[in-house]
Each structure stands twice: as structure tokens, then as C-alpha cells.
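Quick one from the shared queue. A colleague (R.T.) flagged L-lysine exporter family protein LysE/ArgO as missing a structural entry in our internal table.

Convert sequence to C-alpha cells.
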Amino acid sequence: MRRVLTIDRMWTDSSSSSLSASWLAGFTVCLSLIVSIGAQNLYVLRQAVQGRHVQACVLWCVLSDAVLIGLGVAGMAQLLGDSPVLAHYLTLGGAVFLFAYGAFAWNRALFAPQAGLQVSGRAERGVMGVLGALAVITLLNPHVYLDTLVLIGSIGARQDGGLKWVFVAGATCASLLWFVLLAVAGRQLQGVFANPRAWRWLDALTGTMMFALAWWVASGLAGAD
């Protein structure tokens, strides 16, 4: 949070009348927040390693980021701030989702270490099934809203006039760069994940991260009460 506030102060104090400054502000703020290990990123990485509908996953992630950031810039961040009940239930649902996602990941790590390798020999999910799961992971994760609607959106809303949308364009470019790099990394790691043990470690890491995030979100609810 401190890093975001520093970037925010740096760009709002500078000349925001410049197109390049607004674009670079959006790019920098967005990239500083999305480069992390989270549910969405790990799902995209998993699909890239398996080589399954990767382009569709990247397109969904970039478009969803663009839409959510745009909504934040247009005023959704203010709406969430003025509606504590909505924010409470959104956060509660996110904590439950994160815990459940972590439990499924640990189940794979402990009892189904070859689940990542079992692409052939059973019905493979089509693109709509893969995108449906990704949509659930994206839209039920409170961190997505915190990053896009609240933090990035509120910073972008301070840009002057039409420069708000230049800011959104810069943030969208950062999202595109990150997810393309993630897809390329997944392709390069296909050899590593030919070993079931690598999937076990990835699922264990995923589960641990999701449990930690669920605890963090739930502790925030307890503090608010």
C-alpha cells in the first residue's frame, strides 16, 4: 500500500496534462500491483504449462482488468466506499472463495499429484469451461476489486478530463504485458512440469497462498466489526 501511495503522490504532483505522463502513470501503477502470485495468475500459469486455451485466458484477464479499472475511474471506487454493507459481503464471499480454492489446491497436492498431467485420457474442458472457471476466480477474488476498482481506479480518477482514459489505456497495456509474459513463462516451464512432483509443489504453493489471503481478508472483517 505504501508503494502505491508513493506512486500516486509522484504522479498527481507532476504535470498530469501530458498524455505520456498519464499513460505512464497508469502503466506503472497497474504493473506494480499485478506482478504477484495470486489465484488468477496461478490459474493462467497452469493453463500455459498445459498449453490449453492460453490466448483466451490472456484476453479475458486483460479485458477484465480494463473494464474493472475503467469502472473504478468512472466512480465505482467511490460507490464501494459509500456502501460498507456491499463491501462487507463482497469481502466475506472473497474470503470463503479463497479458502475453498486453497483447499482444492492442497487436495491435488496431497492426493492427486498427477492431476496436472492428466490432460489426455479424459474429456478436456472446452474454452468456455476454462474461461468460466477463470471468470469465477477473477470476479470472486476481493483482491481484484481492491487493486482495480479501488486503488488503481481511485488514482486514475484524479487525472484531468479525458486523460482518465489515457491512464486506463496505460494500465491495460501493463496488464497485457504481464499476462503475455506469464503465458510465455508457462510455455518455457512445460518441461519442468512433466514431473508430477513439480505439480505437487505448485499446488502446495497455490494452497498456501490462498489460505494466507483468506486469513488476511477474514482478519480485516473481524477488525471492521
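The chain has a mean pLDDT of 78.
The chain has one domain: 1-222.
Added to the table.
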